[in-house]
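pasting for ref
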Amino acid sequence: MRIVSWNVNGLRAILRKNFYEMVHELQPDILCLQEIKVDRETIPKIELPNYIKIFNSAVRKGYSGTAVFSKIQPKNVNCTTFLDSLTKVHEGRVILVEYEAFWLANAYVPNSGSELGRLGFRHKVWDVEMLKMLQDLKTIRPVILCGDMNVAHEEIDLENPDTNHFSAGFTDEEREGIANLLEYFGIDTFRKFYPNREKCYSWWSYRMRARERNVGWRIDYVIVDKSMEKRVQSAFIATNILGSDHAPVGIDITLV
């Protein structure tokens, strides 16, 4: 089974670019999208007849939102998790899908903001409650978490760590959150296979030819709970797929 996660930075925009080419090339069984930026009344038609389509849109138009496209029939879907209730208005940041063999959590974790105005909420509330949710779920069946976590875990995960220790996505508080997630919940699948590989990024600024120069951050993850580690066969960042400021990330996993 292949699971792919992609922050598309606008679903309508990516549909006009290379969305279907990406699906054809990567052939995901489950595709998780973040930052779809479409409201419930204007979700565009998606020409993927073999996929069940699940959307969780933000109340605010043109903002946030997540989607899951699945070839596998879910047992249950939850787009109103406790995590989304933590925000002042529904931001569509989490989709929880229950399958026979595992839970899938698709998350678009809040950015702390250029002035770090949301850092306290991110560190003391969101990260704490997300870890609790995942720990509770895995007492029932294994859990796969994927999405844009909006944090680079270690210095190897961004191009300029020395100058970004007080930047959103690399503060001590945010790094503590992802460290706790990996210690008490699951495995960073990319680092499982490539623990020391440098310059492997999933997001690049649109400014100063950052992607062309590969000046980026690895902030998109597929994390599996520790009971599933041996089932993960491969992990990848599809840096050749353009169209967004993020690259798709994914895993191949066996459930047998």
